[in-house]
Amino acid sequence: METGWKHEREVYEMLKKEVENDLKDVVENFTVKIIERGEVEKTNFKLCLAVFFGSAIGIRVKVENYFNPEKNAIDYTELFNFILSGLQFVQNEIGITESEMALDRSKIVITLVNENKYDLTNCPHRDFCGDIRIMYYSLVKAEYSKAEISVVIDNKMANTLGFANEEELYSFALENTRQRYPARLDDIMDVIKGQVGEERGAKEDDKELYGAHFFLQTGTACGAASILYPETMDMLRKTFKEDFYILPCVDKGLVVVPKSKANDLLIFRPLLSTMCKMYFDCYGNNLLSEKTLYCDINSGEFSVVE
């Protein structure tokens, strides 16, 4: 079989087009790429064909394994059957479904949940504070729809996606979430105005009561997780210059109150909790915690207010 960079590249480009054309009738979520082999894999050839199903499964094909010297040609039927058998293996033997193949590492995000509302036994997770846990999910395009749905990342999916451990998953998901959903700190009355209209938020009595209360959010369902961003703590230090309390009522965001403005916090906590649930239409698993948290602004550590 003729080698050489130019000829090898031409062969792989031809095979890439053929595989793409034939696979589209078999499976939807796939990508075919020409990639360089690792140093230990290089012989007279430098390239190989990589077929990815979602971003989780990759099947690598070396053309010399399918070269028929008698015909002086590549046995394409054998090559394509190898790809199909690899696909069937991961589906039937390993048990990876098409929905799992659709998982995309770039869409894995981090979220805060209440430990009593999720069964975290088979899911990678870590403690945050009190009854709040950190867990992970991926945004997946819904079948027959342009919408995205969230899929909880369990241990099997994490392994499928190539994460060696929970620490690696945490670092990856946190960075993804930071890039996708920047944190912002809004006056809580401005947030309420955005939910129910200008009239409700303009009342002077409300401004007197809640003028020192802020809402940390990203404008998404995982807004409460923005407290984990390194830059969030820097923003809160710069804004408050003192310790603060957090009311983690809902997963969409956190009510933040500086210590010097929190004299009546425990009195108003039930009302603030009800406001968050009502205005953000949160219930069930979207409810985060009924506890109040305290943050030491110097250390960045959180504790439960007893």
Folded structure, characterized:
Helices cover about 35% and strands about 25% of the residues. The chain is elongated. The strands form 4 sheets. A 6-stranded antiparallel beta sheet has the order 10-11-13-12-14-15, sandwiched between helices. The protein has helices spanning about 5-25, 75-90, 100, 155-160, 165-180, 190-195, 200, 205-210, 230-240, 265-280; strands spanning about 30-35, 45-55, 55-60, 65-70, 75, 110-115, 125-130, 130-140, 150, 185, 215, 245-250, 255-260, 295, 300-305. It has 10 helices and 15 strands. The chain has about 300 residues and is α+β, with helices and mostly antiparallel strands. The protein starts with a helix and ends with a strand.
Which descriptors apply to this entry?
10 helices; 6-stranded antiparallel beta sheet; 306 residues; 4-stranded antiparallel beta sheet; alpha+beta
What overall form do the CA principal axes indicate? elongated
For the biggest β-sheet, the strand order reads 10-11-13-12-14-15
Q: What's the story with the biggest beta sheet?
A: 6 strands, antiparallel
Which class best fits the helix and strand makeup? alpha+beta
Report the C-alpha radius of gyration, rounded: 26 Å
Task: Give the amount of beta strand, in percent.
Answer: 15-25%
Kindly state the number of beta strands.
15
Offer a quick outline of the entry.
By secondary structure, the protein is an alpha+beta fold. It is built from 10 helices and 15 strands.
